[in-house]
Design goal:
The complex is a heterodimer. By secondary structure, chain A is α+β, with helices and mostly antiparallel strands. Chain A is built from 9 helices and 4 strands; from the N terminus they run H-H-H-H-H-E-H-H-E-E-E-H-H. Chain B has 5 domains: 117 residues, Glutaredoxin (3-Layer(aba) Sandwich); 211 residues, NADH-ubiquinone oxidoreductase 51kDa subunit (Rossmann fold, 3-Layer(aba) Sandwich); 84 residues, Ubiquitin-like (UB roll); 89 residues, de novo design (two linked rop proteins); 56 residues, Alpha-Beta Plaits (2-Layer Sandwich). The chains are: A alpha+beta, B alpha/beta.
Amino acid sequence: MQIEAREYEYANDYKVLIESYSGKPEHLLAIMQDVQKHYNYLPRLAISMISQHVGIPVSRVYAMASFYKAFSLVPKGKFIFRVCDGTACHIKNSATLLDQLQEHLGIEVDETTADGLFSIETVNCLGACALAPVMVVNGKVYGKVSPGDVERIINEYGGQSYASQHKC
Amino acid sequence: MWKELLMSMGGRAMQASINVNSNDRQTVLVCCGTGCTANGGREVFKTFETLLKDHAEIELLPVIKATGCNGWCEKGPLVRLLPRDITYCSVAPEDVSEIIDKTLIEGILIKRLLYRDPVSKEYLSSHHQTDFYRKQHKIALRNIGEIDPGQIDDYIEREGYQALKKALQEMSGQGIINIVQAAGLRGRGGGGFPTGRKWQACKNASGEEKFIICNGDEGDPGAFMDRSILEGDPHTIIEGMILGAYAVGASRGYVYVRDEYDLAVQNLGQAINDARQRGYLGNRILGSDLTFDIEIVRGGGAFVCGEETALIASIEGRTGEPHDKYVFPTEKGLWGMPTVINNVETWANVPVIVLHGAEPFARIGTKNSKGTKVFSLVGKVVNTGLVEVPMGTTLREVIYEIGGGLLKKRSFKAVQTGGPSGGCIPASLLDLPIDFDSLTEAGSMMGSGGLIVMDDHTCMVEVARYYTNFLAGESCGKCTPCREGLRAQLEILNRICDGEGTIEDLDLLEDISVTMQEASLCALGRTAPNPVLSTLRYFREEYLTHIEERRCPAGVCRALTTFYIDPVKCTGCQVCKKHCSVNAIQGEKKEVHVIDESICIRCGECYRQCAFDAVKLRQEELR
């Protein structure tokens, strides 16, 4: 992984965010979560800065970033479609939902569309099992989604071109 | 019945109570748990706020509260009106002005918003009259749905922080441990370890500092009781933890919450601040010598962090890899110091036990499992939601009496308990009383309390594959039996689901399972073969059908399934056609429909939706 040139433009922003926490190791997870939340990924430069601030090697920050599901080393899309694949959703056919989403957007799980607009993720359980199958788009919960609803939901986020391109 | 209800709650009397004394002040409780919020609960709440402002003629405006999850997510958003105890189901923002005009002002019930009992066909004015609530016994969930989690006074009004006051004034730390031990409270997170014994070990251990941890890393898919408690009644967790701290002599506490639970983090954060302001947290709590404070740690999204040593590693800012427990965390836990870790639900029980004593709690439940347990009843069941029942209640009572039986009256196949490390229990064991020991004997486990009901449209081989896939993804990879064992099992299960399994595969699955049980480092690896073993034990037939006949009797495994429409049974209702996401079904209204197999992706949506059993599996015909 290399530091990309544009990351330097944000160096000050990263610094403010990271230094809002003390450098104690117990805050490592929280710092990383905040960076992830703000930038939708962990920029390489931010990883170096976190390592310095907390006083641990870059390798250990990297180990955390690759171990926990919450983190991504590549930028995520503006809209993240998170399909719940908890047991309740699974036995109510969340797999088909996921297939439809992948079909329409032309990407696989954990990928992002080329225009940086959409990403697809699966999540173990959102704890909204009564609404199974569930999908969340940037915090908005869609319950009892049928495969036929997928196109409409993509359109809500300006994905018309995707839906029509990949019409089956 | 309907007329009686109206008569007994005459409009005139109601009108009076709006304007008279504040004890009878009307309260509107809008459920804003995650389930109801997704269904528009927040909008209903806001509409009440906005519209009620315009009713200047009401002298004493009703109080409006956004509550935590009532548990009855199926019927949400729920609106409850006190003091009359009226419950309206599936309320939309458009219904709010009618509720204000008719029910709050005129005192008339709105029939279409009431719950109608599916058997007796009666309209029930309160949720307390429904089978779903009548058979429950709430301890851990006692306040949820009754209070606004953002208002510390709501909690205090319902005996909140009374146990803490009592403990600080009258009891010693050891006294608390004795009560918890006498109550027979066991850890609700899955292991079922006696809580009092854990606390005693920590109290006896020596260390410069001691820690209290609340494990809210609810990773089991299909379980959401911890989320509900953290969201709906955060103060009970805080009070429980303070009591624990006083008992063992701890000065700092952490609540480890899944990052996915936004609302829980938010509500708990506010509750901690409010508790600090009132002097329940911080230095010299309520003027005593006790000093204790709590911090929230948001989880990073790793199932294994529910394991206590992994959770400790995660709080310390390391990857969540478990280590062997030669020495328990009660001796050497967080930063090498004595640490008590208990699950959210366990903490929620503590204030009740301390305040009311061990005896009332110990009276509930079975010989070795005392008190109640919260279950999240989900899957193919009519009333999905959270239920709290005494230990020893049978699966049949929970699924059929509280849960209302299976959706679409389909036949029951299995109930999965205990999360990914649990097992599937078949219909023959429906009368099993649920407690820690009976479930373990049946080859499953209590786990955190997920009950996932499965019908004949669920493929048990695929369920085993699903859990194995989940666990293979979540195994931390530190020890070989778990990492490689799960991977090998997944490969075999994939093969069977694709119709390429052999009879030898079943022996191999069992062989690998035994190795994993015996040689894995932590509980995740040791219990990971449970889904495979329990389905092999109770549903071996289904494995054999996949292997020998190359078909999936439930119509789930795509490689082994093709669907067709029976022209005799098809009524041309178009339901299947509407649900087909790839337009593979052709047919005019009231005419026989046909599936184009070249387009069909075999998702089975038509098969599940058809009310006439007209969509059939091709394999059945061949047979």
